[in-house]
Write a structure and sequence with these properties.
Arc Repressor Mutant, subunit A, 57% helix
Length: 122
Amino acid sequence: MDDVILALKNTLGKKGMTDEDISKLAEYLMSFFGFEGEVIDNRLTSEDRDVFYMLEEEGFLTTTQEEVHLKKGKLWRIHYWILKKDQIIRLAKMAKEVHLDKDEVSNMYEQMGDDVWKDRKP
């Protein structure tokens, strides 16, 4: 869940989505997948599907389909949404690295003595 939140912050957070909305979206997304890697499309409402399409555009999800031949000779297509775990982990790792870089810069300025700042002219 932490990686999903970090990955969402690294994508949708940069587009203006609030941390609160990102947390809600992460919970919403994971309520479908849980410990599974895929969800059958029939389970989704049209509103759910809209959110999934948006997440697909951001690289969090992809789709696949399976064709099953029924006894009556008909072809039945089953559509699945697949959670792109590798992509989520990669985006989360990038977000962690950016956060660490900001902390390093902050620490550098905190370690500078007052004498350094006195020499600076506004």
